[in-house]
Write a structure and sequence with these properties.
Helices cover 22% and strands 36% of the residues. It is α+β, with helices and mostly antiparallel strands and 196 residues long.
């Protein structure tokens, strides 16, 4: 018959508590990392242009390049948002370092106030590092009254540094693509009452 000493039982309880604390700490850490992953990934994409994420700048380029490229515009709307959305022009020719302004038109086809938020990217992915937005409607939620139409500008330039990038040397065109998604927050109509 084995005899249990009080010291052995106490040591075992201490080990169990330590293991339980480690497991709880790991679970809390994993949940914290899951919440931090999205903003950290977004920050990484904005800093590096990864995944076609354009750069956000506050002023035009100081230099002009020599290369002229085609910039195409693509517009999409999620199926749960009753809007039409399109650029005024399908594409433009643009010299690197030159600032351009392009307008997109959006129209609320529904009989109630709605709001949407645009996500965006650039193709090819590498071009995101050189696509610099100065001003864009995608930085804030857009609200439209029933039947309302609005024109929204995008102000941008292509960084002349793309002329020395090995991956971009054979690229002749860049596509700026937007997709509007329905906002999850209630919309206040012009009368001040939330739209249903």
């Amino acid at each position: 018959m084995t005899e249990h000493r009080p010291d052995a039982a106490s040591a075992m309880q201490h080990r169990h508590k330590r293991v339980a604390l480690i497991v709880v700490a790991v679970v809390v850490g994993m949940v914290g990392m899951a919440y931090a992953a999205v903003p950290l990934y977004s920050l990484f994409c904005r800093a590096t242009g990864y995944g076609g994420t354009p750069q956000i700048v506050d002023r035009p380029s100081d230099t002009r390049g020599n290369r002229v490229m085609t910039v195409r515009f693509d517009s999409n709307v999620s199926s749960d948002l009753p809007w039409t959305f399109e650029p005024d022009v399908p594409s433009i020719k643009l010299r690197t370092g030159e600032t351009a302004t392009v307008f997109f038109k959006v129209h609320n086809r529904s009989q109630k106030a709605t709001s949407g938020l645009a996500s965006y990217n650039v193709a090819p992915d590498q071009a995101g590092l050189f696509f610099n937005k100065i001003s864009c409607f995608c930085f804030s939620e857009q609200h439209l009254e029933p039947g309302e139409t609005m024109e929204m500008p995008v102000v941008f330039y292509l960084d002349p540094a793309l002329e020395t990038d090995d991956i971009m040397k054979n690229t002749e065109s860049v596509t700026l693509s937007y997709t509007f998604f329905a906002s999850k927050t209630p919309v206040a109509s012009a009368r001040g009452k939330p739209a249903l």
